[in-house]
Design goal:
The complex is a heterodimer. By secondary structure, chain A is mainly beta. Chain A is 0% helix and 53% strand. Chain A is built from no helices and 11 strands. In chain A, strands 2, 4, 5, 6, 9, 10 and 11 form a 7-stranded mixed sheet that branches. By secondary structure, chain B is mostly beta strands. In chain B, the strands form 2 sheets. In chain B, strands 1, 3, 4, 7, 8 and 9 form a 6-stranded mixed sheet that branches. The radius of gyration of chain B is 13 Å and the shape is globular. The model of chain B has no long low-confidence stretch (mean pLDDT 96). Classes of the chains: A mainly beta, B mainly beta. The interface between A and B is medium-sized, with 25 and 27 residues.
């Protein structure tokens, strides 16, 4: 079964770059599917950040696009998130997930999810 | 403010039936894009509950069902159990602002 595990620093200073990695086990990223990042500020709802295909093709949330970079390393079976110029508003639990799709390119959902990692932006 | 609107909270007694609504617009649910639902138990990651409006993944009890009509979707839970107490989120695609996947604000289900 597919399992995902996020890792990275739990504390990032304002204006710096947040960097996280998602290790995938039980499935080879090279075999297909999109893979995504979603975040959840403490006590708040979910926000899709972006998604990447094994070929490197990416889609980003327009509201974060100028600060987000998602990349994939098929040799390590993992994908990564970089979010630049962070502020306190970027404090959140960051989840990675596999992206599944149905009858059309637009109809995509997330399953399974990693356990999530809390990133706090503070000096 | 979320593009998809959910009630902040719903409640029900054990054994009862509850529904959670997810209201969108012509750029998301009303445009024909599918709605998916997630359950988030306290302190855990979201778990897929319903995909493609009304399909249950393997392992999800048939007490959970989804439907969609017009610009809204609903999640129904029958035979409410204490273990169903959680946050529930709907998710769809929105074609505005270059297009992206969006979530509802979430609904806290309390089992009385």
């Amino acid at each position: 079964q597919v399992q995902l595990q996020e890792s990275g620093p739990g504390l990032v200073k304002p204006s710096e770059t947040l960097s996280l990695t998602c290790a995938v086990s039980g499935y080879s990223i090279s075999s297909g599917y999109y893979w995504g990042w979603i975040r959840q500020p403490p006590g708040k709802g979910l926000e899709w950040i972006g998604s990447i295909y094994h070929s490197g093709s990416t889609y980003y949330n327009p509201s974060l696009k100028s600060r987000v970079t998602i990349s994939v390393d098929t040799s390590k079976n993992q994908f990564s998130l970089k979010l630049s110029s962070v502020t306190a508003a970027d404090t959140a639990v960051y989840y990675c997930a596999r992206v599944l799709y149905g009858s059309s390119w637009y109809n995509r959902w997330f399953d399974p999810w990693g356990q999530g990692t809390l990133v706090t932006v503070s000096s | 403010q979320s593009v998809l609107t959910q009630p902040p909270s719903v409640s029900g007694a054990p054994g009862q039936r509850v529904t959670i609504s997810c209201t969108g617009s012509s750029s998301n649910i009303g445009a024909g894009y599918d709605v998916h639902w997630y359950q988030q138990l306290p302190g855990t990651a979201p778990k897929l509950l319903i995909y493609g409006n009304s399909n249950r993944p393997s392992g999800v009890p048939d007490r959970f069902s989804g439907s969609k009509s017009g610009t809204s979707a609903s999640l129904a839970i029958t035979g409410l159990q204490a273990e169903d107490e959680a946050d529930y989120y709907c998710q769809s695609y929105d074609s505005s602002l270059s297009g992206h996947w969006v979530f509802g604000g979430g609904t806290k289900l309390t089992v009385l």
